[in-house]
C-alpha cells in the first residue's frame, strides 16, 4: 500500500481502527486475546495487523513511564531558515535521545522533545544549534510534571468494556533495578514491542524461559508500557496542535488533570518558561480545534493560549515517520 498517494481518511476501515485502539491499550496483547475482545477471528487479526505493519502504517514500541521519561526533558522550539527545515528536523530525529520531532505548519519552526543527559543537552543547546547557520533561534522549556503523555492517548473506537478487557494489570511493584539483559530486552522492545518471547530470546541470546521471567518482572514494575504509533489522520484526526497555555499557578494541577482526561489530548506537561502548561491535541479538523479552544480551554480559566499547528510529524515515540523532503518512511 502506497501511503504517499492513498487518502489517509480511507486507508484504515473501522476494524483496522479498532485494532489500533486495542494496541493503544496493550501493545503486547496476543492475537487470540485481540480477536476474542473484538469479536473477530484470530486469522483476521493476524492478517490485518500484518498488513498495517508491513505497509508502515502502524508501529508498536515500548515507552518509558510518563513521569520517569518526561520530567526533566526539554521541549525544544527551533526557528529555522526557509528551505532548511528538513535538514534540522532530520538531524534532530537522527539522535537516539530525541524521541519526538515535528515540523510546524508554515515550515519555519521545528519542535522536538530532548531526553539528553546534562552534557549532551548542553552541547546541543550551547554548541551544535548555535553553530548551525540554518538555526535562527532556539528556546528550551523543561518538563516539570507530566499529567499525560502519548502512551496514554486512546482514539475512542473501543467501548469501556472492551478497553477494560484488554487493559494490563497495573504495576504491582516499584520499578526494578535493571541489569544488562533487562536493558537489551527493553531496547529491542523499544524498536518493536510486539516481538514474541521466542524472537526476543533469540535476539538477546538468552533462554526463552528466562526472557518470560524477566518480562514478567519488568511488567510488574511498570516498565513495559507501549505506544501504538500511527498517523492520527488514519484515525479521523486531521489536525495536530501544540497549545502553550498560561494558567494561574494555583490552578495548574487542576487544569492539567482536567486536560489529561480529555479524549482529544495526547500530552499535558507543566513546563518552565513563559507558558506554564503545554497540551498537545488531536482534532478532526480546524473547526474542531476552535471548538476545543473555546469550549474546553475557556471554561478552565486559561488566560492565554498560543496555538502551534503541526504541519508534519517526523518522529514519534522514537519511530521515524518520514524521510527528508517530507516523504513517508519506506516500509
Describe this protein with a few key phrases.
331 residues; alpha+beta; eight-stranded antiparallel beta barrel; two-stranded antiparallel sheet; 13 strands; globular
How does this model look, in words?
- This protein has 331 residues and is an alpha+beta fold.
- Helix content is 38%, strand content 25%.
- The protein has an 8-stranded antiparallel β-barrel with strand order 2-4-3-10-7-9-8-5, surrounded by 4 helices. It has a two-stranded antiparallel ribbon with strand order 1-6. A two-stranded antiparallel ribbon has the order 12-13.
- Helix 3 packs across helix 4.
- The protein is globular and about 50 Å long.
End-to-end Cα distance, whole Å, is: 9 Å
Low-confidence stretches: 1-6, 327-331
How many helices? The count is: 13
Sheet with the most strands? 8 strands, antiparallel, barrel
Structural class based on helices, strands and sheet pairing: alpha+beta
Mean pLDDT: 90
Shape: globular
Q: Give the ordered list of helices and strands.
A: HHHHEHEHEEHEHHHHEEHEEHEEEE
Question: Residue share in helices?
Answer: 25-40%
Strand order of the largest sheet: 2-4-3-10-7-9-8-5
The total count of strands amounts to 13
Strand content: 25-35%
- What is Rg? 20 Å
GO molecular function, one term: sequence-specific DNA binding
Organism: Kitasatospora indigofera
Pfam family, one: HTH_AsnC-type
Protein name: AsnC family transcriptional regulator
